[in-house]
Design the sequence.
C-alpha cells in the first residue's frame, strides 16, 4: 500500500498506468497529478485536493473521496470541505473512469468533466454538483441522498435505481434522462425541466413547483407533491395526484384519463379540452378549475361536483 507521507515527499505527479490498489492519498495535495489508466481500486483520497488531476480511464472501484475537493475554485463549504482558491480553476477529470462503489460523500465538484464516467453504485451523499454539465453521466444505483444538483445539465444521464431522497435538483435539466426505479422522496425538482419516461414511478412528496414535465408518466405517483405552476405534457393516464398541490398546474396538453385527483388543491388548474373519463375528483373544490371544452361525461365526482363540471365545460 502506498504511503501518503512518502507520496508527498516525492512530490510526484505522474502515476499513469500504475497499480496503486488501496493506496493512501488522504489529505494529499494532488493538483495536476496524472492517474490516467491507473488501478486505484480501494484507494483513499479523503480530504485530498484534486484540482486539475486526471483520472481518465482509471479504475477507482471502491475508492474513497470523502470531502475531497474535486475542483479548483470552491471557496467555502458549510459541510466542512476544504476551502481552496487556485488559478486557473480546473476540476479533476474522470472521463471513462470506473467509479463503481466509490465513496464521494460530501465531495465538491466544480467545473467537473464527467464524460462517460461510471458512478454505478457510488456513494455521493451530500455531494455538490451545482451548475455542472453531467450529460451522459452514469449514476445507476448511486446514493445521491441530500446531494446538490441544482441547475445541473443532465441530458441523457442514467439515474436508474438511484437514491435522490432529499436531493436538490432545482432548475436542473434532465432531457432524455433514465429514471427507472429511481427513488425521489422529498426531492426538490422545482423549476426543473424533466423529459423522461417514468411509468409507475414514485414522485410522492416531491417539490415540482414551476417544473416542466414531459414524457410517459402513466401510473406514476405524485401523492401530496407540490406541482404549483407546473406544466405537464405527455401521458399521465392512471397517475395518482391524491392530496397534491395543483394550483395553476397546466394539464392542457396531457392525457390524464383514469387519474386520481382526490383531495388535491386544484385552484386555477388548467384541464381545458381534455378527456376526463375516469378521473377521480372526489374531495376537490372544482369552482376555479378550468375545464372548458373538456369531456366530463365519465368523470368521477360528487353530484355537486358533476354539476360544476358540466356547467364549466360547456
Sequence:
Amino acid at each position: 500500500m502506498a504511503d501518503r507521507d512518502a507520496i508527498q515527499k516525492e512530490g510526484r505527479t505522474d502515476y499513469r498506468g500504475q497499480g496503486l490498489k488501496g493506496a493512501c492519498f488522504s489529505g494529499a495535495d494532488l493538483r495536476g497529478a496524472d492517474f490516467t489508466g491507473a488501478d486505484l481500486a480501494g484507494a483513499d483520497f479523503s480530504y485530498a485536493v484534486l484540482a486539475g488531476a486526471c483520472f481518465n480511464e482509471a479504475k477507482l472501484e471502491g475508492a474513497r473521496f470523502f470531502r475531497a475537493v474535486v475542483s479548483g475554485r470552491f471557496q467555502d463549504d458549510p459541510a466542512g470541505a476544504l476551502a481552496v482558491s487556485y488559478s486557473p480553476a480546473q476540476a479533476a477529470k474522470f472521463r471513462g473512469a470506473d467509479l463503481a462503489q466509490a465513496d464521494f460523500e460530501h465531495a465538491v465538484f466544480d467545473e467537473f468533466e464527467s464524460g462517460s464516467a461510471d458512478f454505478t453504485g457510488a456513494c455521493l451523499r451530500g455531494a455538490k454538483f451545482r451548475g455542472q454539465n453531467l450529460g451522459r453521466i452514469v449514476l445507476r444505483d448511486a446514493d445521491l441522498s441530500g446531494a446538490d444538483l441544482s441547475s445541473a445539465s443532465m441530458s441523457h444521464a442514467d439515474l436508474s435505481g438511484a437514491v435522490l431522497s432529499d436531493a436538490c435538483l432545482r432548475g436542473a435539466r434532465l432531457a432524455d434522462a433514465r429514471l427507472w426505479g429511481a427513488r425521489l422522496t422529498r426531492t426538490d425538482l422545482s423549476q426543473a425541466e424533466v423529459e423522461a419516461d417514468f411509468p409507475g414511478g414514485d414522485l410522492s412528496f416531491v417539490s415540482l413547483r414551476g417544473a416542466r414535465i414531459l414524457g410517459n408518466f402513466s401510473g406514476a405517483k405524485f401523492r401530496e407533491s407540490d406541482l404549483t405552476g407546473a406544466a405537464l405534457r405527455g401521458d399521465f393516464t392512471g397517475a395518482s395526484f391524491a392530496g397534491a398541490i395543483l394550483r395553476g398546474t397546466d394539464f392542457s396538453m396531457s392525457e390524464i384519463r383514469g387519474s386520481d385527483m382526490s383531495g388535491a388543491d386544484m385552484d386555477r388548474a388548467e384541464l381545458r379540452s381534455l378527456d376526463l373519463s375516469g378521473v377521480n375528483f372526489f374531495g376537490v373544490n372544482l369552482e376555479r378549475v378550468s375545464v372548458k371544452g373538456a369531456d366530463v361525461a365519465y368523470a368521477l365526482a360528487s353530484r355537486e361536483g358533476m354539476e360544476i363540471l358540466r356547467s364549466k365545460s360547456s
About this structure: Residues 303-313 form the longest helix (11 residues). The CA atoms of residues 31 and 211 lie 39 Å apart. Confidence is low (pLDDT under 50) at residues 74-89.
